[in-house]
Specification:
435 residues; alpha+beta; Rossmann fold; six-stranded mixed sheet; 19 strands; binds adenosine-5'-triphosphate; tRNA processing
Length: 435
């Protein structure tokens, strides 16, 4: 039974973090260094006390000559502690313009995500001193509020999996004292002494100097980081609200954008682009989008190109267009089996269409714009192209709108309208999932 201040700190933070995420278990990212070895012991104590399932993963980057030795160390430590262990080998192909550390980190998170069991949160060993180093590294690069807020105690990977950092408020010296007190063995990465790396230089030279001169430097920096993170949370909330107000389907409504201050307008465009995978548009690109979007010429041919796609304007909205969204294959999906995660549709009940008859084949088709339909509430029948144009759907989007067919008859146009002949108040709503 471990009785120490460090354990109490970690126990309370693990309680908050893992229960708020409803994690099925904890997957310790174990490098064999003192931080993650202490983390493993603390988590094991926590797991025994609170009946939580553990696993540990070592990622072998193959970058150090000692990598295999470290892997063996982690494996035998886990065997001794009776914690299920997995090692994951990754290979890092050097890309230009990205540092080796950044590539190793990216590969590591991917490997941890692959190795962690479903529903488990990944637990990482970054601590208070790492946090201050991250802050100073970001300051050096000229980061804004988000970057200076450094590491969050909880983050989410693209897969939806959570990562948690229960040691973020614990200092390196407390972690090392804990390891000494309990006689814990760990590996020492000799590259940590090499001041050629910026992080090591800050750790070994700069922070000790600042700490010796300014009382409470580390604690005060952590306080600033906490304030920055809270402020960023407010900005995130306001940004999401602004985006919801400006969004119509996947597009951005220009009139709604005009109702915002310049700073909030730029911010919404940035957020919208980041949801398309464009993290940092340059100010020049942003200014160009704004200038062309707000030009009085409704029909102006706005097209701002990015590597992954382009921003285009159609009437009163901005669209994100990629090669894919322009050329959607015509596909027919047989929906006779409608249960299960992998089906391309979700079924809801309400104002929709009647159920298909048993002898009707349901399919989803794209791009058959010449097929005719009489939408509910419209006086006559016309082509899908006509009705989509009528709804101001830009030409390049029309091919990628999913239409549900009963046999060869279009009955529902995803989220837009249904056929008058098939409409039913207490019917079914076909919601075709995005790819
Ligand atoms: N080889 C590894 N295998 C498994 N987990 C690892 C490995 N290396 C690091 N970790 C995990 O990541 C934590 C942070 O490690 P480190 O400070 O070396 O990473 P970093 O490159 O600064 O990455 P980050 O941006 O995530 O802080 C460790 O405490 C440990 O939990």
């Amino acid at each position: 039974m471990i009785n120490s201040r460090v354990y109490q700190q970690v126990e309370s933070s693990l309680k908050v973090l893992s229960s708020s995420l409803d994690a099925k278990g904890l997957c310790i990212a174990l490098s064999g260094g003192v931080d993650s070895v202490v983390l493993l012991h603390l988590c094991r104590e926590y797991a025994n006390k609170h009946n939580v399932i553990l696993q540990a993963v070592y990622v072998n980057h193959g970058l150090s000559q000692h990598a295999t030795q470290w892997q063996q160390f982690c494996q035998s430590l886990c065997e001794t502690l009776n914690v299920p262990f997995v090692a994951k080998q990754v290979s890092i192909t050097r890309k230009a313009r990205t540092s080796l550390e950044a590539q190793a980190r990216e590969a590591r998170y991917q490997a941890l995500d692959d190795a962690a069991k479903a529903g488990f949160a990944i637990v990482l060993g970054q601590h208070a001193d790492d946090q201050v180093e991250t802050f100073l590294l970001r300051l050096k690069r000229g980061s804004g509020l988000l970057g200076l807020g450094a590491m969050r105690a909880t983050t989410q990977l693209a897969s939806g999996r959570y990562c948690i950092r229960p040691l973020l408020a614990v200092s390196r010296s407390d972690i090392e004292a804990f390891a000494r007190q309990f006689g814990l063995e760990h590996i020492t990465d000799e590259s940590n002494a090499d001041d050629a790396f910026d992080r090591n230089f800050l750790r070994n030279q700069v922070i000790p100097l600042l700490t010796s001169r300014f009382n409470g430097f580390v604690a005060n920096t952590l306080r600033s980081i906490d304030i920055l993170q809270r402020q960023q949370t407010i900005i995130d909330e306001v940004s999401e609200e602004d985006l919801q107000k400006c969004r119509c389907r996947m597009a951005l409504n220009i009139t709604a954008l005009q109702g915002l201050s310049c700073a909030r307008r730029d911010n919404v465009i940035r957020l919208w682009l980041s949801k398309q995978g464009i993290e940092m548009p340059s100010q020049k690109q942003l200014d160009e989008i704004v200038q062309q979007a707000f030009s009085s010429r409704q029909d102006s041919q706005l097209e701002i190109r990015f590597k992954q796609g382009a921003v285009r304007r159609y009437r009163d909205a901005l669209y994100w267009v990629t090669e894919n969204s322009q050329k959607h294959d015509i596909e027919t999906v047989n929906l006779n089996e409608l249960s299960g995660q992998s089906t391309p549709v979700a079924l809801q009940t309400g104002k929709g269409v009647r159920k298909p008859f048993t002898d009707e084949i349901v399919s989803i088709r794209y791009g058959r714009l010449k097929d005719k339909i009489k939408p509910q509430g419209k006086p006559g029948s016309n082509t899908l192209k006509h009705w989509l144009k009528d709804l101001h759907i830009p030409s390049w989007e029309r091919d990628s709108i999913a239409v549900v067919y009963y046999n060869d008859t279009p009955v529902a146009v995803n989220g837009l309208f249904v056929s008058a002949e098939h409409a039913e108040d207490n019917g079914i709503i076909w919601v075709v999932k995005d790819d």
